[in-house]
Amino acid sequence: MPENKFPVLKTATHFTMTTLVDNYTDVLLDDGKFVKRCPRVRKDGKRMSPLLAEHGLSFLFEIEGDFEKHLIMMDFGLSNIAVPNNISALEMGIDNVETFIISHGHHDHIGSVKEVLNAIPEPKEVIVHPDAFIEERMHIFPDGTHVPIPSLKRKQFEPLGCPIVEIITPHILANGHMATITNIPRVTDFEKGMPTAYFKVGNEIYKDDIHDDQGIVVNVKGKGLVIVTGCGHSGIINTVLYAQEITGVKEIFAVIGGFHLSGSFFDPIIATTIEEMKKFSPAVLVPTHCTGWKAMIAFEREFPDAFILNSVGAKIVLE
User: Are the beta carbons of 184 and 170 closer than 8 angstroms?
Assistant: First the structure.
């Protein structure tokens, strides 16, 4: 492993991730060793309000050190409805969120930016890669069809007062207990990104390698790294490898998030991805969002003890 030139990541004693929105909801799922499902009744005995799922993602992270606790939120879902609804239904206080992260500028991760940031009592910083602001993103399919990808706009933040912190290298958060995984090197030979992704500048169209793709990493004391992605457009194996590189920590405790293996283009690399993931031997594996049904089933089959089916409102508790 290369010499680690990144600041040493402080170890966390506890890491909890609450899913504010994902593609799947199921109130009948049971708790497990590392997961606590949303209760069906509130403290007053009344039924919980319905939780909404959508093709989007939003996570709330609680990171604890020996004498401190931090709250960080990543992503805002697809619509401007689901995340605010679920925050209210789950009675999740976000007033103490100290930092917001946008994993990348695609529409299924930024839908409720305005609603969420308007609801907090004072402006908080928003961490984002500058490429998240590429304006004219699109899919170009083999038949020539162009489908716009709604993207992030700087003007969205102007009335909110939240400072934008643009980063192009890994960035320390939570008083040293968390880092972003940013500008992820593409080193594997099979993770080639999203083939239909392009963007337009003026009259020119360019291939979009989605360099704004980023995730986060936490080092849980005595267990190893917890890695969380948004969509994993850089490749989930590339992401884990880079987390190991920047932290200097080899042990992998948990890999969580979108692995972007959905669709016929990605079917051929599911088996290879699984074989490479086995080399990390994660104790917890939580594929979400854009991982895709075929890949989810394959991961469950190959990682029967580590696999967790994620759902809206679920808490992944790692300590």
Answer: no
